[in-house]
Amino acid sequence: MKSLIAAAAGLGLLAASPVTAQPATAPAAATPPRIIMLRFFVADIARGEAFYAKVFGMRTVQKLGEGVRIMVFPGSQSPGIILIQSPVEKTMNGSFIIQVDDLNDTLTRVAANGGKLKNTKFEQKMGSEIGRSSHFYDPDGNEIEVLQMSPAKK
């Protein structure tokens, strides 16, 4: 784990200062918590890396040995994902929600690249927009929800 944290810090994804205990209520001037990266366990690192590159356009920014990849979304340094090849990946699945421009196109790419569609459908007005989403599993069983926001029709 120490090498993952050091690698993330080297990429500018983590602050260089050490973690210290915080009081029960952080002062108002404190930097708010934020997600640095998401961790997913996969059975086949090459397959996982190819899946996220083809579906979301992610790129690998660092390889840590044979079984770990740090990937980022297009045009971004952070947050990204860490893929870790593990023999117990089926018991260590993750999940996240990602906003996309075209829900149907994304689901087509998911199915074409080994993902399993759950065919869930969600649609709700959210302020002046309509949110539509669906869930799928990547080839290693990690659940992802893709969300498309569109202007609400008047």
TrEMBL record:
Q: Does the keyword RNA-binding apply?
A: no
Q: Say if the entry is tagged with keyword Signal.
A: yes
Stored InterPro entries: Anthracycline_SecMetBiosynth, Glyas_Bleomycin-R_OHBP_Dase, Glyas_Fos-R_dOase_dom, VOC_core
* Signal peptide as annotated in the record: 1-21
Q: What are the residue boundaries of the VOC domain, all occurrences included?
A: 34-149
Keyword annotations for this protein, in alphabetical order, are:
Signal
Q: Which residues cross the membrane?
A: none
| Name of the protein in its database record | VOC family protein
Q: Which organism is it from?
A: Novosphingobium aquae
